[in-house]
Fold this sequence. Notes:
64% of the residues lie in helices and 3% in strands. With 185 residues, it is mostly helical.
Amino acid sequence: MLLAVCALILGIKFKLTKVADDNTKEPSGGPPEPSVSKDGPHPQQGMDPPASHIKSFTQRILERISSKNEEFLILIDRRPRVYAERLYREFMATVTDQSPQGDNTRLCDELTKLGTLIQDVMNYADKILNDTGVGKDLAEAQEIQDCMQEVERWLEDILCGVLEEVDVLLNAHQSHRLLYQSSAL
């Protein structure tokens, strides 16, 4: 069952979709009318928000991305290679004569946590793209996302070795062919 879950994690491709909001449809053929509140007229959804709204919305999204990045850095103890090596060693410590395939539960759990963080950052990056387009804010979000995905690839590489055969994983580690051993990150 555990192997099936790990295989499912490795096989999932995330897709970002934009859901249309029914409130943006124009009533009976005319343009949407601005709503009026005690503060004066405000545009309804579907109309371009004021530049100050975009900036504050984008800043809130960037703060959320920064928070997810901090969670990531805490997860990896701010040292990605040491983190990957530790997970490799923890797995290898579970390989015994009684359990020659070892226990990859911890590795799968870490991949799940990392996948959740990556998905959150991807969703936030999509919101930035929709609101402000391509620019430095999106580049900042994508840089954080790229770093997270690199570490995810490292763990997937270890897991693939685990699923293939422990001896293959051991040989790859000893010859420094695991992704985290040769990465520039």
